[in-house]
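Exam prep: given the inputs below (a chain plus pyridoxal-5'-phosphate), describe the expected output before reading on.
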Amino acid sequence: MNNPQSWEARADEYSLYGFTDLPSVHERGAVVLTHGEGPYVFDVNGKRYLDANSGLWNMVAGFDHKGLADAAKAQYDRFPGYHAFFGRMSDQTVMLSEKLVDVSPFDHGRVFYTNSGSEANDTMVKMLWFLHASEGNPKRRKILTRWNAYHGVTVVSASMTGKPYNEVFGLPMEGFLHLTCPHYWRFGEPGETEEQFVARLARELEETIEREGADTIAGFFAEPVMGAGGVIPPAKGYFQAIQPILKKHGIPLISDEVICGFGRTGNTWGCQTYGFTPDAIISSKNLTAGLFPMGAVILGPDLADRMQAAAEKIEEFPHGFTASGHPVGCAIALKAIDVVMNEGLADNVKRLAPRLEAGLRAIMERSEHIGELRGIGFMWALEAVKDKATKTPFDGSLSVSERIANTCTDLGLICRPLGQSIVLCPPFILTEAQMDEMFEKLEQALNKVFAEVA
Ligand SMILES: *Cc1c(COP(=O)(O)O)cnc(C)c1O
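Solution:
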């Protein structure tokens, strides 16, 4: 950092870092990367890191998948860009929509493209507002989500996100309501069984709908497993308890599958893993295996028909992004779906998930300061606690999870601190040997940091 010409100093001078712990990056310098191989990335100094976070959940096929890069190159040569306005769109866009409905849990549906997951959630909210108004229910505008949900960073999707950091923006906007996070280990009351906890959350939903009026609520959004909230699988029976209540009140259930979609939980969709049928699916991140910024709203049969009718009524749906349905993004997504589903990546997640869980559980059992292991498939979190029995967290000023993640980085392992948890969501191509490397480095870092702080 002393040399002003270093990559780290140049990054520090010219970047406004997002979602980055500034004291830590000033002290350590940014990790500036040049390339990748399989699940590994390399920095400007030639140091290799096993990226146990798949980039940002999305690089599921690793960092140098030749077939994906070739699909991108071929499409850049054939037709490098187009929009999807005014009744024109690329052939790739047509094929991808067909494919997405085909691999979705829906018999029939319609697809709309965005450039990100945030925009896909914003788009879905605009669709619901448009649809309800068109059907004579203009008051149906409130959006229900949960605390600790992550739905993105645009004004609407940040309002849906249930994290306290959005207060600095004066968000959420009015009409975005957050219900209890379905994390039994943390939010279950003393003496409350998991079943009672779920019943309490269902009651809360029912009471909220009664208090606000069903005729003021546009939709309910949920990640099957909360991702950026700390990898939180739902309490047992949660979706089975809430879905009938939403149905009864005519409130669409939207599954935000930006992380869970395309294999992360061991099935194509997280809603399949948890046994519920949403009215629409939000996809992004793994949709292109991280090679292109793209999101999609996949409407199930009911919403597809109603949206189509609403649009027909005023002769258009006045919404879209310049790069919606970009042909290169669509070509990459078509290839990515094929790679994940037919080149053994989804199978690898299914096959190795029990091994991943067992390895992490063994680490937890050997440690005095891991209070909970939670997750499914290839998405897991270990939660650090000062005291296992009382679930007491470490003092926030100790920055325990940041220290663990920084120590991992020093050891050549990238993982992510989230609250007091460490998140591990490796690429789907991970081998057993690479998994063992991850376990070893992680445990070494945990032992070092816990010895310092405990
Ligand atoms: C990442 C994420 C988003 C936002 O996607 P961006 O592409 O970053 O805008 C939305 N929902 C979930 C569940 C996510 O994990």
